[in-house]
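step=encode ok
step=design start
structure_in=
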């Protein structure tokens, strides 16, 4: 059996991919503070091996900036703050309950739908 590469091991341990927009509007709305809070909380919760955070350019949701997306759940969060980033880590990434107050869209039934107060676990 072939030995797994570090990259393959990392992919197999990853459970969530978090996209944080640092395009112009989101940066103006302090997305870099959201990014820093997300990194800090992921570290505090010992999720380094399970969560990948990627900075993106504009995701075309500028009026709702800063924008954060969590996959594989497909939840789009709006008007993010550092406090909301901490909640997303503790509630969504750890417990599997998305933060309804900040969720704008979620992927459900093959398409993105406006979020109502439903839990990720209810899929
Ligand atoms: S700059 Fe972030 S959604 Fe446009």
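sequence_out=
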């Amino acid at each position: 059996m072939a030995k797994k590469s570090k990259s393959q091991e990392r992919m197999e341990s990853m459970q969530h991919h978090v996209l944080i927009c640092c395009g112009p509007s989101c940066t103006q709305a302090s997305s870099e503070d959201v990014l820093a809070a997300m990194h800090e909380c992921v570290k505090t919760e010992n999720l380094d091996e399970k969560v990948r955070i990627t900075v993106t350019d504009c995701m075309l949701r500028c009026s709702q900036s800063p924008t954060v997306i969590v996959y594989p759940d497909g939840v789009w969060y709006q008007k993010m703050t550092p406090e909301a980033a901490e909640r997303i880590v503790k509630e969504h990434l750890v417990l599997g309950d998305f933060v309804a107050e900040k969720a704008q869209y979620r992927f459900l039934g093959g398409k993105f739908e406006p979020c109502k107060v439903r839990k990720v676990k209810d899929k």
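step=design ok
step=annotate ok -> The domain at 14-122 is CATH 3.40.30.10 (Glutaredoxin).
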